[in-house]
Amino acid sequence: MTAIAEGFTLEETALAELAAGLRGELVGRDHPTYDEHRKIWNGSISRRPAVIVRCAGVADVMAAVKFARQHGLPVAVRSGGHSFPGLSVADDALMIDLSPMKGVRVDPDERTARVQAGVLLGELDRETQPFGLAAPSGIVTHTGVAGLTLGGGIGWIMRKHGLSIDQLRRVDLVTADGELVKASADENEDLFWGIRGAGANFGVVTEFEFDLVPVGPTILAGPIFWKMEDSPEVLRFYRDWVADAPDELMTIVVHRKAPALPFVPDELHGEPVVMVIPCWIGDLDEGERFVQPMREFGNPVADVCMRKPYLAHQAMFDPSFVPGRWYYFRSFDVPALTDEMIDITTEHSLRIESPLTSFPIWQMGGAVSRVDEDDAAFGGRSAAFTYNIGASTETEEGFAEEREWVRNFWSALEEWHTSVYVNFLSDAEEGEDRIRAAYGPAKYDRLQALKRKWDPDNFFRINQNISPG
Ligand SMILES: Cc1cc2nc3c(=O)[nH]c(=O)nc-3n(C[C@H](O)[C@H](O)[C@H](O)COP(=O)(O)OP(=O)(O)OC[C@H]3O[C@@H](n4cnc5c(N)ncnc54)[C@H](O)[C@@H]3O)c2cc1C
């Protein structure tokens, strides 16, 4: 017998049988790579699963699900391992690790890509960009396509081309019974509705098929910096400037202490700054004209908004979100940026202590808002901006203080909260009400009914969970 958790043992023969049937690898607690594979992006989370099944393909996923069911083990599903609250790893669970599943097949004529669950955003972009194509995804290359898409997927090209789910054609999914099904607009339509926003709840998606859209390869993008003390005026101008922006423009605003990068003047290194980051994916001359008023406003201290490859821009935030650091996030959508909100935002941003804390305010709207709210489970299409207040420290030192800063800041803007993006939710501290807020009451009820149909025992519960009710 192998003791895998207090009061729980597994027959060694059962584990050996599972291992023998896999094309991938079974990693137990005494395996030399156990610590490497249980590690996730957020360094503040360290959990010890009972066993890790490193899946090579669909058959391994089916075997892992059936094994966990048979032995009463909870299941955690890991693709890119970037869940903020660490929902891809759990103590004493069976971890289904999809990260070895790296297949990508682009069809440039049909403009589609078939993508296995272990693929990261940067890996997908590398396969699509040689054809001048892309699937809408996120802003950090090492995030998983799977978890991001199953929550919705917001990123630099969404205002023109929609969320990741808006270009999703089909998924292959292993159900709670360990069976493989397809879901698309024509097959298991109810499931397809649910997985587009609440996807972790209904099974393990092994493959995605996306429609691809033309992007780049050259775009106009990059940050313009001002001193943070100028943020009240900069953000008021910014708000009015983006109000009539075409879909070709997407922007993110970041408040942080300036990093020691070559293009930031030496005297500003470590000083608080506000950055407006435009990303223009249309005609480049037109983009230059549109961005000009913003880059001329007030006294910018650095400006590296320039023509560059889409691939380079997609990697722009990678140094700000290095794996293994300690992170904590709270998020909410807002219907507008009012003067009062801008002043509260500046006031709290000026209190950032950690040189690594860097939080985005996302401009929403455009194509995202034109898809019918009932088209998919994803909620919050009418949001004007999304706050993703996040703190980061290198280690535990200073983390608790920075986390408190996040919570206070989040509370200070509470009266303007509307919906929330499910992939930006934190842990159990936020509670079931916040999951309901992500979908709204009507969709939450519909998701519960779907959960009763596809996973009545709540076998998949280590996620932003929809209980079967
Ligand atoms: C650095 C960073 C940058 C980010 N940037 C963006 C961004 O630009 N846009 C955006 O929309 N989001 C962004 N996010 C949030 C991101 O969408 C979520 O963290 C997402 O869950 C990550 O997916 P993953 O596969 O890496 O995560 P994982 O931790 O592996 O999984 C996250 C959740 O999805 C479930 N899951 C994972 N794979 C599957 C699967 N194949 N089938 C069923 N369920 C599965 C897991 O059970 C877990 O609940 C970012 C996160 C980080 C850490």
Task: Give the structural class.
Answer: alpha+beta
Largest sheet: 9 strands, antiparallel
Q: Helical segment tally? A: 15
Q: Beta-strand level of the residues, as a percent range?
A: 15-25%
- The mean pLDDT is 96
Q: What percent of the residues sit in helical stretches (DSSP H or I)? A: 25-40%
In this entry the ligands are: flavin-adenine dinucleotide
Uncertain segments are none
Q: Could you give the distance between the termini?
A: 36 Å
In short:
This protein has 469 residues and is of the alpha+beta class.
Topology:
Elements: E1 2-5, E2 8-10, H1 12-21, E3 25-28, H2 34-38, E4 51-54, H3 58-70, E5 75-78, E6 94-97, E7 104-107, E8 112-116, H4 121-128, E9 133-134, H5 145-151, H6 158-161, E10 168-174, E11 180-184, H7 189-198, E12 204-211, E13 213-214, E14 218-221, E15 224-227, H8 231-243, E16 249-257, E17 272-280, H9 284-296, E18 302-303, E19 306-309, H10 310-314, E20 326-334, H11 339-349, E21 358-363, H12 367-370, E22 385-393, H13 399-412, H14 432-439, H15 441-454
Parallel strand pairs: 4-6, 5-6
Antiparallel strand pairs: 1-2, 3-4, 7-8, 8-12, 9-13, 10-11, 10-12, 14-17, 14-19, 15-17, 15-18, 16-17, 16-21, 20-22, 21-22
Bound molecules: flavin-adenine dinucleotide (FAD).
Q: How would you sum up this structure, described in words?
A:
With 469 residues, the protein is of the alpha+beta class. Helix content is 30%, strand content 24%. It has 15 helices and 22 strands. The chain has helices at residues 12-21, 34-38, 58-70, 121-128, 145-151, 158-161, 189-198, 231-243, 284-296, 310-314, 339-349, 367-370, 399-412, 432-439, 441-454, and strands at 2-5, 8-10, 25-28, 51-54, 75-78, 94-97, 104-107, 112-116, 133-134, 168-174, 180-184, 204-211, 213-214, 218-221, 224-227, 249-257, 272-280, 302-303, 306-309, 326-334, 358-363, 385-393. Strands 14, 15, 16, 17, 18, 19, 20, 21 and 22 form a nine-stranded antiparallel β-sheet that branches. It has a five-stranded antiparallel β-sheet with strand order 7-8-12-10-11. Strand 7 and strand 8 (112-116) form a beta hairpin. Helix 14 (432-439) packs across helix 15 (441-454). The longest helix has 14 residues, at 399-412. It is globular. The relative contact order is 0.12. The mean pLDDT is 96. Bound molecules: flavin-adenine dinucleotide. Flavin-adenine dinucleotide (FAD) binds at residues 41, 77-84, 87-88, 98, 117, 138-140, 143-144, 146-148, 150-151, 153-155, 199-200, 204-205, 321, 423, 463.
